[in-house]
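Predict the holo structure. Ligand: coenzyme A.
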Amino acid sequence: MKDNDVVMVSACRTPFSRFESPMTSLPSIDLAMVVMKEVIGRVGLDPKEVEEIYYGSCVVAEFALETDVPARQASLLAGFPAEVFSVTLDRACCSSLTTLRLGMMAMRAEGVKVVMSVGSENMPRTPHLAPGLRSGTRIGHIKLVDLLFELGYKAKGFNSVAVDAGEVAVEHGVTREMQDEWAVRSHERCLKAYEEGRIKVGEELTPVVVPQAKGEPVVIDRDECPRRTTREALAKLRPVYGSPTVTAGNAPPISAGSSAILLMTREEARKRGLEPLATVVAAVSAATEPRGIAVIPAFTIQKALDRAGLSLDDMALMEINEAFAAMPLVSTKILAGGDEGKWRRLQEITNVNGGAVAIGHPVGASAGRITMTLAYELRRRGGGYGVASICGGLAQGEAVIIKV
Ligand SMILES: CC(C)(COP(=O)(O)OP(=O)(O)OC[C@H]1O[C@@H](n2cnc3c(N)ncnc32)[C@H](O)[C@@H]1OP(=O)(O)O)[C@@H](O)C(=O)NCCC(=O)NCCS
């Protein structure tokens, strides 16, 4: 343990919403403000004590409704002083781990001591675009573009992520049936985690209060998407976006939500009498050919392990974001290196409280969620190492190894 270790001292997220939810009336900037205030409030920090804020959000068209620099807007509106540095970045679904990694870099390279990493997204609020309207339509129909549809990747000739995930999964021997089975387990594990108090307000969750035009505000204090389901029910669903395997059942729902993690040096946490939630051992990024979205978590995890001088056997738990159920299956299979028994063991320790298929995937916020859920679960189990990894559009990856 070193004084300049980077430690997580506070972490929380909002519940993740359904497509139709009162929560989706709140801009992603407002959702971010909820967690930004809560994450410092829990450890008694004044906003002026946060030196830098790194903020990830990747559905640009949604925050475009409030125009640009959502990090700056959210930090000013949430009461952070005008002098606090902030940056907004888009690294697709990797964003809120990239923010954590950049925050660490600032701490290591520039001596910054207190950093906030935020991710926020409100996908259902994404507006349709009317391109060309400004220059006028001389004759013909006005075209509306839905940026949520296939997340826009096809506009420049890339595949939809569901196609890439499904095709690459099949190439790795991961069938539709396996993906459906993983999806059922994701819901079961998540519902069990709720029943047993492992996903709860005051720890991972902080409620969202949604004002109503008339009457009392609506309070949302749990994820809205987990449900009881069966393999038989999932088998009936038709593939989406032209994917060979991906359906509404083994894909994550389109969601709103935000997450925040407060980082300090160990010395700074000690000075303030704060007990770290976890030590950040290594944080790395990677990328591969654009269709390799299901394999990149495996490569990124391996890179993080190499960086930390650790092996998979050292990991008590893993989180691999369920961008689709295909991702944890393909990536654990690659990590197992052809050993069936090891593949099963890795699946057992991966996403033990469910994943994005059940919880939802507000893309910019999910990387923060998997990191904090890993930290809280490791604490509950008495400690150890864990690794969290996420893939992002066009096969980017991010992974973090933490120790509790
Ligand atoms: C897959 C997707 C298109 C589905 O959207 P949708 O059609 O609006 O989803 P719905 O929730 O209405 O589900 C469709 C149907 O499947 C059913 N269904 C969904 N999950 C189910 C489950 N776990 N068990 C049983 N049925 C389920 C719904 O009940 C619904 O049935 P209905 O038509 O009879 O009402 C959308 O969620 C999506 O695009 N997800 C992926 C987002 C994404 O790409 N994220 C980034 C990854 S990198």
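Residues 55 and 138 are 41 Å apart (CA to CA). The longest strand covers residues 256-265.
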